[in-house]
């Protein structure tokens, strides 16, 4: 018992994340992450490429 409020809050937060329009400033995010390479912008890595990088 006592989990009702916590679950309700989690549900509320999950709905907000799912349905809220997220205006992301990709230029600012790119600068923060240090992705200055134009190759990264034009050709994002695919899931299979990411897996092969983890195997190395």
Globular, elongated, flat, extended or rod-shaped: what is the shape?
elongated
Spatial extent as radius of gyration: 19 Å
Sequence stretches where pLDDT stays below 50 over 5 or more residues: none
Let me know the number of strands.
0
Q: Could you tell me the strand content as a percent range?
A: under 5%
Question: Roughly what percent helix?
Answer: 55-70%
Mean pLDDT across residues: 80
Question: What's the tally of helices?
Answer: 4
Q: Could you tell me how far the N terminus lies from the C terminus, measured between alpha carbons in angstroms?
A: 48 Å
Structural class comes to mainly alpha
The largest β sheet comes out as: none
Q: What order do the helices and strands follow?
A: HHHH
């Amino acid at each position: 018992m006592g989990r009702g409020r916590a679950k309700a809050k989690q549900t509320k937060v999950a709905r907000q994340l799912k349905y809220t329009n997220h205006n992301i400033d990709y230029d600012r995010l790119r600068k923060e992450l240090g992705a200055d390479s134009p190759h990264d912008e034009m050709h994002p890595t695919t899931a299979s490429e990411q897996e092969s990088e983890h195997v190395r």
